[in-house]
Amino acid sequence: MKNSAAIHSALAEIEGHMANPPATSRIIKIEPESAQKLLGERNKGNRPPKPNKVQQFAKDMTNERWGLTGDTIKFGADGRLLDGQNRLAACVRANHSFTTHVVFDIDPKLFGRMDIGKPRNAADVLHIAGYKYASTLASALRWAYLLDTNPYNRETLQPEFVLKLARDDFPEIEEFIKAGRDVNRQFGHPAGQSAALIYNFNKSDHEKSDDFLNAWLQGNRNGKYQIIDTMQALLHSQKVNNNGRIHELTRAAIIIKAWNIFKAGHKGSLAQLQKSITETIESIE
């Protein structure tokens, strides 16, 4: 039976080096128990782990294909894990120790320069900033910005700009992420785009927006809600006729047109929604 001193030998060594940081890296064999504690206690504000990487690393460790490559586990001067969470998670998953270089006392301000060949995307930055459902939120913020400026803009928004949008321009949009995810779950429409559209509708007319969303999700299709049925039928046919895909601008155009008809209190028609598609395609071309 393993004793606790042996189990946590890597943890003790790492914590000792944190207290008295060496000038160079140290080669340390990390066992699963230490990896688990490091992830639980030191992995604060990192980007989300990558399941595929963890799975592959775990497989390599289990099959003895993991070697001392020179890649490092990095800890900041504040004791936070800055790089290596996927390797530590793989160690836990495989229940297999691995040997690695470990570096200590890195300035936490340099966190944004880690993995410079693997830049953090908008979702990573939002997650690190403490936002939930960061991937959906990043998409929703992009769409909210495009709807306010130019939906035909194909420029990639930089992560720092998206974080600014979350904090300064669209702080309320986070409340609509659940609605976007509900629409995605039920109809397969992208959660981020759906959240942004609902957010936009809500700004225009709060009561009618709630009515529109509830009818959409609950399947109300008669009377004043008939345009929602027409909208869903057209979205479905577009998907079927295009190998399971709908251009994001086409989807947005159909939903926005249906909303405008509903908000105006009109019955609407399939021809009106189809016209929105034609106008969108012409604008793209």
Helix content: 55-70%
- Span from first to last CA? 70 Å
| Domains, number | 2
Mean pLDDT over the full residue set: 89
The strand line-up of the biggest sheet is 1-4-2-3
Largest sheet: 4 strands, mixed
Q: Which structural class fits the helix and strand makeup?
A: alpha+beta
How large, in whole angstroms, is the Cα Rg?
25 Å
What is the H/E string?
A: HHEHHEEHEHHHHHHHHH
In one word, what is the shape? elongated
Number of strands: 4
Counting DSSP H or I runs of 4 or more residues, the number of helices is: 14
Uncertain spans: 1-7
Query: What is the strand content?
Result: 5-15%
How does this model look, in words?
The structure is a single chain. This protein has about 280 residues and is α+β, with helices and mostly antiparallel strands. It has two domains: about 110 residues, no CATH class; about 160 residues, no CATH class. It is built from 14 helices and four strands. The longest helix has 16 residues. The protein starts with a helix and ends with a helix. The N terminus is likely disordered.
Please outline the helices and strands:
Elements: H1 4-7, H2 9-19, E1 26-30, H3 32-42, H4 51-62, E2 72-76, E3 81-83, H5 85-94, E4 98-106, H6 122-128, H7 134-148, H8 159-169, H9 177-187, H10 191-204, H11 206-218, H12 226-241, H13 248-263, H14 270-284
Parallel strand pairs: 2-4
Antiparallel strand pairs: 1-4, 2-3
Helix pairs in contact: 3-5, 4-5, 6-7, 6-8, 7-8, 7-10, 9-10, 10-11, 10-13, 12-13, 13-14
